[in-house]
Structure formats: structure tokens, C-alpha cells
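Ticket #4471: structure output looks truncated?

Reporter: J.K.
Steps to reproduce: submitted the chain below (402 residues) through the standard prediction queue, then opened the result file.
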Amino acid sequence: MKIDAAKVIVCSPGRNFVTLKLFTDQGVTGVGDATVNGREKAVVAYLEEHVIPCLIGRDPRRIEDIWQYLYRGAYWRRGPITMAAISAVDVALWDIKAKMAGMPLVDLLGGRSRDGVMVYGHANGADLAETVDAVGRYIELGYRAIRAQSGVPGLAKAYGVGRGDLHYEPAGVGLPDETVWDTRKYLAYVPKLFEALRDAYGPGPHLLHDVHHRLTPLEAAQLGKALEPYNLFWLEDATPAENQEAFRLIRQHTTTPLAVGEVFNTIWDAKDLISNQLIDYIRMAVVHSGGLTHLRRIADFAAVWGVRTGCHGATDLSPVCMGAALHFDAWVPNFGVQEYMRHTEETDAVFPHAYYFEAGALHPGDAVGHGVDIDEALAAKYPYERAYLPVARLEDGTMWNW
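Returned output as attached by the reporter:
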């Protein structure tokens, strides 16, 4: 059995996605997600110019060898572009192998560890009252875990507050939007939000919050301590994690659970955070961490230290990535939660999928492979549009972390 062709498909049914499709000489195909939000064409070039020529003629059943070839053999290792390309290949290969075996991917991984995958939705509003109402709507939909984000008085735009009720997509066509940030205003407001949420809904719902890398380690420690009375499920991306040691300061001052990792690409980005037990959840995405082959290793390593998974699952990842993540989530023993942002109807049509939501959980479905495909004819109706994520500045004009 050989890989005899490969195709990169770029489409924009509401936002840009990059999909790799592998073909074999036995007629079995597999698809993988290669999307890097705001840098999509960089991955396309990496795949078309450097990866695909090395795949033609290889045995698709040799997943491990191909992963090692693309990682070790590149010399220039790691980074979001390289690892997204490797992930697309890896997920497509797992899809092919599961189809050859005639079974859902989760069964090939080792079988289900749970009946359903608990997911958290994104509730947001322009102010405290709107966010409280939005959380209530998610509870009514059956969600047991909800991430809450709110506008902040005195700031024109706040991270995580969408332009509509359903779909939050921060990337915009044209040059990057510039937003203004003030840490003091944010720190004074967020505890009030979670006080209001607990007053409204009691201790039952799991509540989460994303700081989005905005705080220094000491500021993050202060926020974590201020939120302790409200029993958060986690505080996400409290500070940039290039310096993994920074989380030690946060950990020393608060018992609020900490999550990080959506911008990580390899186990080396999280090694010290995990082994020193400085975080509680590792949030790496299938598409940005080298695929299922590498993410399984990270999860097993995390389990040794009592760290659970919480895979990134925003709409900058296509349904192909979500499908693969759900099979991983259903299998992985040290599962925590799965992020779930609902895609647009246009995206769901382009990427028909077997997974479905029921009673606060996603289910990967029983289709063979990872259960997600791409309708190429429909995808062609949504051409690529260059888009950028926003940038942030402090009120005095200094560049800051968006």
C-alpha cells in the first residue's frame, strides 16, 4: 500500500481553513487539519513545497516512521508551521489506518475510556449582566462547563467578547485590528463577574476563564487568589509561558487550577510545567502539536504528574481537528474537558462529520476513521481571504500581548 497523491485544500466558509487530503493506491483516503489562524498560507507552502514530495510512495501504515521522518528529518524542528503540517499528515494517516481496519479511530487508539466527552461552551457579553444571561443560556442547553468572558468598563474591546450570539471569530479581513488593554481595570472587574455568576447559578456549573496571556506572573497570582472563593474549573493562559518557570510564582500564591498550552507545539514547551506540577490542565491542540502521535505522548507524560488534558477547540480549528480530538478525548485516560466553539452552518456543510452534541457532551460517532470529511466542490465556493488576528497595545501605546 502506497501514498500516491496528496492535495492541500484552502477554503473560507466563514473563516480560513487548510486541509490536507492523502490518497492511496488502494482507494482509501484520509484528511487532516493544518490551519494556523492568520498564517494559513505559510502552512500551505510548507506542505506543498517540502512535505508532500517526501510522502509520495510511502506506506501510509507506517505512521510512527513517517512522523519521525518529518520531525527529526527536517532539522529545523518545532514551531507552529512545522508542527501543523506534521499534524495534518499524522491525522490523515490515522484516518486511513482506522478506515482500513473498519473501525472508529477511538477503537484503534485503544477503545473508549468514557461514554461522552464533557465540553465547555463560550459565554460572553458586553457587560456583566449580558455575560450572566449568556451563561444561563448555555446551562439551559445542557452544558456542564462554561467559559465566561465579559467586556470591561473603560475598555472598548475585551478578549473573548464576540460580535454575535453564537460564533466568535477574532480574525478580521484587512490589516490587524488594534485593541487597547488596561490590566488594572481588568483585575478590578473579573472577580465581580464570577461573584455574580455564583450568586445567579450556585456552585453547580463548572466555570472557566481565559486571561489570554495578558498578565505578569505576579498579576496572575493576584487574580487567581481573588477568584478562589468562586471555585473556578480553571484559569487559562494567565501569563505567557515562554518562561515555564513563571508559573511557579503563580502556583505559590493561589489554589485556583491553572491551564495553558494552546500555543504550544511540542512536549518541550510543557515539559517543566508538567513535571514540576505547575499546571493542572495541558491545553495543546491536535493540529498544533504534531497530531495524535505526539499528543498521545504528551498526555501519557502528563498523567505521571496528575495533569489532565483540556484540548484547545476554538473555531480556528476545523471540524477535521475536532473530530480527531474527540476520538482522542474519548480514549485518553487523564481527560479533563474539551473546548467546543460551534462552527458556522457553512463550515459544518463543507466538513460533514459524525460527531454530535448531547446532554453537555460531544460524542465522536461510530463512523470509521475520525468521521470527518471535506466536500471539495462546496469548499471551492468559499475562496481564501487573507485575515489577521488582532494586536493589543497598552493605553500609552506600548505593544502588549493580545
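Triage note (M.O.): checked the attachment and the full C-alpha cell line is present. The first helix runs from residue 40 to 55.
Status: closed, working as intended.
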